[in-house]
Amino acid sequence: MRFGRVPVSEAAGLVTAHTVRAGGATLRKGHVVTPEMARQMAAAGLDDLVAVRLDPGDVGEDAAARRLAERLADRPGDGSLRVAEPFTGRCNLFAERAGVLLVERAAIDAVNAVDEAVTAATLQPFRPVVAGEMVATVKVIPYAVAGDVLERACAAVPARALRVAPYRLGRVGVVSTRLPGLKEGTIDRTLRVLAERLAPTGARIVADERVPHDPASLADALGGLARAGAELAVVFGASAIADRQDVIPAGIERAGGRVEHLGMPVDPGNLLLVGSLGAMPVIGAPGCARSPKENGFDWVLHRLLAGLAVTRADIVALGVGGLLMEIVSRPQPRDGGEPDEADA
């Protein structure tokens, strides 16, 4: 591709690099100059203009953007992404269903490293998305790109580099433990907030158990959820989990389950537990999960509802970007204060 100023008499067939105004007429940038347009510009007294001449093998910006976007969305039998019509070198990709966005970060980095002419951007990996939401965009910077550059960019995209994992779990059981001073209204509000969180995923609460805050009672309740067909269990403790030997992890193990990980580098959400009872994942919810504001609980909940495993390695990788907000209702860590259990 060659970019520069050319005489109007030689402009036919070239692409305008900037908007041209002559004789009351306007020719937008990025348009191919027709012979008639060239004659009109000359008649209006325009001597030259800045234009782009494509070399053999060059691919126009829209065609190039579409091809790379289709490569990103090319998942036979998946159908989780839709490629929109390109415009001005940009081609957007939209989710075709609700779920969790999966991004192969190395693949996107590889595309962007091929050449400055080609760029791809996505939402954050594992972000919950709804049908119709834009999840990625491809932008070709110049008006055309060399064919070999486009080929290398497409070759950098492996299978399943970008897709939406649909929500698979729909039956959620909840156990709330009780201590003196914890009001039933607080538990009721917590259940309403959880139901609102679940609504976009299509999941619903199928069981609501309220038991004393001790391991034996919790173990019995978790066993009851499993027998009732719950696919995911959420435990809201009357007191935050302080140790692996505390009530909630002890109750999971007493029920025959296991604790995968306690704690996470996300604030709010530090005191979250991930475990399982047979095939049923179990989340020990942090106190901040009682609030509708985004916190670490959301990050884990959506992954599990999409049927994605959440391992210790997944959790410890959340630290970069894991500081979601300052919590003004409690002393800050730098002040040396202890966090309130309700916000942990």
Please, could you describe this protein's structure?
The chain has helices spanning 35-43, 61-73, 105-114, 147-155, 184-198, 215-227, 247-254, 296-305, 312-316, and strands at 2-7, 15-16, 20-22, 25-27, 48-53, 58-60, 81-83, 90-95, 99-103, 118-122, 128-129, 134-140, 144-146, 162-166, 171-178, 204-212, 232-236, 258-262, 273-277, 280-285. It is elongated and about 90 Å long. With 344 residues, it is an alpha+beta fold. 40% of the residues are buried. Helix 5 links the parallel strand 15 and strand 16 (204-212). The protein has a 6-stranded mixed sheet, sandwiched between helices. It has a 4-stranded antiparallel sheet with strand order 7-8-12-10. It has a 3-stranded antiparallel sheet with strand order 1-5-2, with no helix packed on it.
Number of H/I helices: 9
Number of strands: 20
User: Main beta sheet: strand number and arrangement?
Assistant: 6 strands, mixed
- Give the proportion of residues in helices: 25-40%
Question: Mean pLDDT, rounded to whole units?
Answer: 90
The Rg value, from CA coordinates, equals 28 Å
Q: What does the overall shape look like?
A: elongated
